[in-house]
Design a protein that fits this description.
Blueprint lengths: L2 H15 L5 H18 L5 H19 L10 H26 L6 H7 L1 H17 L4 H14 L2 E2 L4 E2 L4 E3 L5 E2 L4 E2 L4 E3 L3 E3 L15 E2 L4 E2 L4 E3 L4 E2 L4 E2 L4 E2 L8 E2 L13
Parallel strand pairs: 1-4, 2-5, 3-6, 4-7, 5-8, 6-9, 7-10, 8-11, 9-12, 10-13, 12-14
Helix pairs in contact: 2-3, 2-7, 4-6, 6-7
């Protein structure tokens, strides 16, 4: 047996023991982009696009439905019934971004060019699939958005209406995060877990952010018991691991010294 044959057999043995259908990633990327364009591209024939999406979804089920008891194929019909509701929710998100960003000129600009809008759109499209016990596809959908925008939203998170991510890049929102209505996050915000022990995977590990909260750049808020009360403002670079009462203002103060030439 040649050296290459021996190596090939070892690799094939691993792949047989750990079957990973990598074509699923490409299929989900195509599905995700097609779904986004079906909702927003006025040049797309919606009825035809939905038929094409149904066929793509059928293929995703064959690749990703590893639990025969889940009846994944039946998910599509109930999922499509939610699309108009999701579209309404995304319109509220776009309006919130338009209202919250002085640089934005129109809703069209937000739909077409804002990474924060694209990331929340893919999250809102993935979340209902996650709730239907079909977890791998929505996880890959949000990874499509993550790779394009730098925004990492787990499809299991719960996010209210009129959500605004300004600049967005670097935002991380964990699986059990709960976010209320009219919340605004700036770039680099992390809503994460205080502990990453595997035995806590079924518990609430990420914070709760109530309505009308603004969180500025690079703030980190950790822990499943951590609650940021409504109408609060969290300043940039703040590190929070305990709850904050409603109407609070939390700021991180760092000392900056500036010396002129010759001092």
């Amino acid at each position: 047996m040649s050296e290459n044959q021996d190596i090939s057999q070892k690799i094939d043995a691993f792949k047989k023991e750990n079957p990973l259908p990598f074509s699923l990633k490409k299929e989900v990327a195509v599905f995700t982009e097609q779904l986004f364009q079906t909702l927003f591209d006025n040049q797309a024939n919606t009825e035809n696009s939905l038929k094409e999406l149904a066929l793509t979804f059928e293929n995703l089920v064959s690749l990703a439905c590893w639990n025969p008891q889940a009846n994944c194929q039946s998910v599509w019909e109930s999922y499509t019934e939610e699309l108009p509701v999701i579209l309404e929710a995304l319109h509220l998100d776009a309006k919130a971004i338009l209202a919250g960003d002085p640089a934005s000129q129109s809703l069209e600009e937000i739909y077409l060019s804002y990474p924060g809008f694209y990331a929340i759109a893919i999250y809102r499209l993935a979340h209902p699939l996650y709730l239907r016990n079909f977890p791998l596809v929505p996880r890959l959908m949000t990874e499509v958005a993550h790779s394009k925008t730098g925004v990492d939203i787990h499809p299991g998170a719960q996010i209210g209406h009129s959500f605004c991510m300004d600049h967005a890049t670097g935002i991380v929102i964990g699986e059990t995060t709960q976010i209320g209505n009219h919340v605004k996050l700036y770039q680099g915000v992390t809503l994460g877990a205080l502990s990453v022990r595997k035995e806590l995977s079924k518990t609430k590990r990420h914070p709760t952010i109530e309505d009308q909260v603004t969180i500025y750049a690079n703030a980190t808020i950790l822990g499943g018991d951590t609650l940021v009360g409504h109408h609060s403002t969290i300043g940039g670079n703040a590190w929070i691991t305990s709850s904050v009462k409603a109407h609070s203002k939390v700021f991180h103060h760092s000392e900056i010294k500036i010396k002129s030439h010759g001092e």
